[in-house]
Write a structure and sequence with these properties.
The structure holds 2 protein chains of 2 kinds. Chain A contains 3 helices and 4 strands; from the N terminus they run E-H-E-E-H-E-H. Chain A is α+β, with helices and mostly antiparallel strands. In chain A, helix 1 (15-27) packs antiparallel against helix 3. In chain B, helix 13 (393-413) links the parallel strand 13 (383-387) and strand 14. Chain B has an 8-stranded mixed sheet with strand order 1-8-7-3-4-5-6-2. In chain B, strands 10-11-12-13-14-15-16-17 form an 8-stranded parallel beta barrel, surrounded by 4 helices. Chain B has helices at residues 40-68, 71-84, 87-98, 103-121, 124-147, 167-172, 191-199, 235-244, 274-279, 303-316, 353-356, 361-375, 393-413, 429-433, 435-438, 449-457, 475-488, 508-514, 526-534, 538-550, 554-563; strands spanning 4-7, 9-10, 15-23, 158-162, 178-183, 203-205, 219-223, 228-231, 254-255, 261-268, 285-289, 322-325, 383-387, 421-426, 444-447, 494-497, 518-521. Chain B is of the alpha/beta class. Classes of the chains: A alpha+beta, B alpha/beta. The interface between A and B is medium-sized, with 17 and 20 residues.
């Protein structure tokens, strides 16, 4: 299951949004990977190091790939984080 | 091995014999052992344990930061926890350990690799590199901790040797297991020295770099009286040290050779100090540092808890007076729930009575309620209250008004209470200069020599570079004491002293000669000072005091004190 999402939080995938993103990815059983929408390289969403290592800024499109029973639920949750401005968390 | 002696500053008149245990809390990582000598399973277990301990630490710090600073700032700790448990990192460390590195080296190597990687990416990644460095250092510290000397469970008869010991280090020392401690740095009034006295531990500070030559496991005698560390002592030296450890404890009141009673009391800075205060023969408590009831906790003690503590202190003694100093807290003592502002110079800031009379009146009011109720309890007539860091008469009057208004509240509520004996600390030049104006309004003065010396001489007590200046043998300090005692003369106002100076038996004769009525000190030196009192003749003591007050320099004072004895 795959989804393309535009990153809204001002910080991009850093600081609190990244932290929240990794925390959420770890809450589900599904295996989640992410990468830039225009690239085939994927990194594990459960790794803070990998997620922040991507250096994704606000406005960029990312691709989320999930496999597992609750894949849809985890993608919904992650999309929610990526498309909500930081202040609302 | 030949006996040799290193000298430093003795801070307790006690001797101890034991084996050296070096305590090096922040040593660099040593060279790793050869890979074949590393037990990978044991190292993996150490790593896992450290990771879980580090996470606990982070959670605690997160909660504290959220409470004190804000949720936003606290969130950085979430990121740290995630880095800590990051699979790439744990895999990296695991691989390194399996490749033959001990846990701390594996952590160092793995994190450093990621730090460099992030740094090379620049920009926002640089911040992540800082985060990673931070976590790396925490983990390395926690891992080393688990095998670092644990100060609370040393083998019996250990002499702890260190570059320095922080108050939290000394707080862990178990006096039943530790035969003493010796440090490279530090002075007579450093916190570690004060702590050694309150725990009655033989201790020497300021030995210098030469201390490094004493190896782990070496047998030593710590002579805290002379300030000598005897390395590889012969049998005679050990026997002498053991004999000296036997001090005569006098439990009743003492008087000078010519029959003048001098009250010799103990200072109490934690509940654990109560027992030694009694055991060492203290006549009572001359300084009950009430702030300890407020430290190391999440919220202030309520009225009943304080009441119990004051009553407990009173009940520890059959007859003795208990002098409670009201809350003495400033910007240098972090108390999370008080939200103390950061001050550029906390020693000259809003501390002591200034804070009690400050905008948040409730904390002081609660303490006053507990004190007035304790004064009305069965043993309450022996309770005295004193105010810290008073500099103006307005402060004294304002504080007394607060006591009176709380007393009328208690009366309305029908609660038993009494007005205790009421005094002030003399610890600022302002209070010493104005002592004659204060005297008619108080029942007693208590001279706090640690702060008085510091404020009179403008020399910080912990700073070795100026410790000569901050010495209580300085003529200016002695004149401030003399002025205070003279100002009380003719008023119904007794004068006590509760700094470290009061506990120095070499100065007892001088203090009696200056006219002090009461001396209060760390419990450990009570027997020595009591002995010194009984050997003192007041006429001779007064003559000595006159000569000492005529001296121009500290060296002259010191000479007079040594030749006259």
């Amino acid at each position: 299951m795959e989804r393309i999402v535009t990153v809204v939080p001002e910080d991009g995938l850093h600081a609190r949004p990244a932290s929240k993103f990794v925390e959420t990815a770890n809450e589900y059983d599904a295996d989640v990977q992410l990468g830039r929408a225009d690239s085939d390289d994927l990194a594990p969403a459960a790794s803070m190091l990998a997620v922040t290592g991507l250096g994704v800024s606000a406005g960029e499109d990312v691709r989320l790939v999930a496999e597992g029973d609750d894949a849809e639920a985890v993608l919904d949750a992650l999309e929610d984080i990526l498309s909500t401005p930081e202040a609302e968390h | 091995m030949a006996e040799r002696t290193l000298s430093g500053i003795g801070v307790t008149p006690l001797s101890g014999v034991g084996k050296v245990v070096w305590y090096r809390p922040d040593a660099d990582l040593p060279e790793p052992p050869a890979p074949e000598d590393v037990d990978a399973d044991a190292e993996l277990a150490r790593f896992d344990e450290a990771r879980s301990d580090a996470e606990d630490e982070l959670q605690t710090e997160r909660a504290r930061t959220a409470e004190r600073v804000g949720e936003e700032e606290a969130a950085v700790f979430d990121a740290h926890v995630q880095f800590l448990n990051d699979p790439q990192i744990t895999d990296g460390v695991t691989d390194a350990i399996e490749g033959g590195l001990p846990a701390e080296h594996a952590v160092q190597e793995t994190f450093t690799g990621f730090v460099e990687q992030f740094e090379s990416m620049g920009g926002r990644m640089g911040e992540r590199a800082d985060d990673l460095r931070d976590i790396r250092d925490r983990l390395v510290r926690v891992i080393s901790d688990s095998e670092r000397v644990d100060l609370s469970s040393l083998p019996k008869g250990s002499v702890v040797v260190a570059e320095r010991l922080t108050p939290s280090d000394t707080a862990q020392l178990d006096p039943k297991r530790v035969a003493g401690f010796v440090t490279v740095t530090g002075g007579r009034t450093s916190h570690a020295a004060i702590f050694a006295r309150s725990l009655a531990l033989p201790a020497i500070v300021g030995v210098g770099e030469e201390l490094e030559s004493v190896e782990d496991g070496t047998e030593v005698v710590v002579d805290g009286d002379a300030g000598n560390l005897v390395v590889n002592p012969g049998d005679d030296t050990k026997a002498a040290a053991a004999a000296e450890a036997d001090v005569h404890v006098r439990s009743g009141p003492v008087e000078t050779a010519d029959g003048v009673g001098i009250e010799v009391a103990a200072n109490v800075g934690t509940l654990a100090d109560l027992e030694p205060a009694v055991d060492r023969g203290g006549d009572g408590i001359g300084l009950f540092r009430s702030e300890f009831l407020f430290l190391d906790r999440e919220s202030p003690p309520d009225e009943d808890e304080q009441f119990e503590a004051y009553v407990d202190a009173l009940e520890s003694f059959e007859h003795g007076r208990v002098v409670v100093r009201t809350l003495d807290i400033g910007g240098d003592k972090p108390v999370p729930y008080l939200d103390l502002p950061e001050e550029e110079n906390p020693f000259l800031g809003e501390r002591g009575i200034r804070r009690s009379l400050g905008p948040d009146a409730s904390l002081f009011e609660t303490q006053i309620r507990a004190l007035l109720r304790a004064a009305g309890s069965t043993d309450g007539t022996r309770l005295s209250v004193m105010l810290p860091l008073v500099t103006t008469l307005e402060e004294l009057h304002e504080a007394r008004e607060r006591f009176e208004s709380v007393a009328s509240d208690l009366a309305e509520e029908g609660l038993t209470h009494e007005m205790p004996e009421f005094g002030i600390m003399i610890e600022t030049p302002a209070a010493a200069f104005m002592a004659d104006r204060f005297a008619p309004h108080v029942d007693f003065f208590s001279i706090g020599t640690n702060d008085l010396a510091q404020y009179v001489m403008a020399a910080e007590r912990g700073n070795e570079r100026v410790s000569e200046l901050g010495d209580y043998r300085q003529p200016a300090v002695l004149h401030a004491i003399d002025a205070t005692v003279s100002a009380a003369d003719g008023h119904d106002c007794w004068v006590g002293m509760c700094g470290e100076m009061a506990g120095d038996p070499d100065l007892t004769e001088l203090l009696v000669g200056l006219g002090l009525d009461e001396l209060s000190m760390s419990a450990v030196t009570v027997p020595h000072v009591k002995a010194a009192v009984t050997e003192t003749d007041t006429a001779e003591a007064e003559a000595l005091a006159a000569k000492v007050l005529a001296a121009d320099t500290k060296d002259e004072v010191t000479n007079l004190l040594t030749t006259d004895q």
